[in-house]
Amino acid sequence: MKTLLLTGFEPFLQFTINPTMKIASELHEQTIGEYQIQSKILPVDFRIAGQQLLTYIEKYKPDAVISLGLAGGRYKITPERIAININDGEPDNSGNKLEDEPIIETGAVGYFSTLPIRKMVHSLLDHQLPAEISNSAGTYLCNHVMYQALHYAQKEQSKMKAGFIHIPASHELAVQHGKIPSWSHEDLLKGIKLCIEVLSADERS
Ligand code: PCA
Question: Is the whole-model pTM more than 0.85?
Fold first, then answer.
C-alpha cells in the first residue's frame, strides 16, 4: 500500500468556507486504488504553510502529495501544470502581505507538476465533470505549497510525486458569497476521488 498526503486549506480572504477542508477530511484514512490517504489542513499563512507541509512529508514519507485549493470563480476542476518561485498577493490570514518575493532564494524559477494531470483531466471529462489543465496556480498560497513540495522532491532526489488541484466553490460557499459559480460537494468529492484513482492506475501501467 502506498501513502498519499492530501492537503486542503482553511478559509481565506472573502471566502468563509473552504470546500477543500471537507473533501480532505472525508477522504482521511480512506483507501483509493493503491493509496491510503492521510489528510491535513494547511493554514493560509505564507510563513508557516510550507513548513507545515514539509513536516508532514517528513512524517508520513508519502509516495505522492496532492494539495487542494479553492479557486473561487473558476467553473472547472483544474489540475495545475506549474508552480513558480514567487510569493505575491493579498494579505494572508496572519496579515503577511508579500510582494515579488522568491519562495526559495536559490530555487528554480518553476517546477512542473509530477502528477498525471492530462490523464486526470481526461478521466474527469469522461465522467462528465468539467475540467481542464490550468497553466497558472497564481502567486498566493496554493502556488506556494505546490512549489514547496516539488522543490523538496527535487532537492531530496525523491520519487515522491507532487502537484496541486484547484477546485470551484461548493454550493454552500456560493450561497454565502453570492457571485461565484459552484458545484455540489458530491461532485467535487467525486472529481478528487477520480484524480486519485488516475494517479494510482498511472503507476500500475
Ligand atoms: N486557495 C488559495 C489559497 C488557499 C486556497 O484554498 C489560492 O488559490 O492560492
Answer: yes
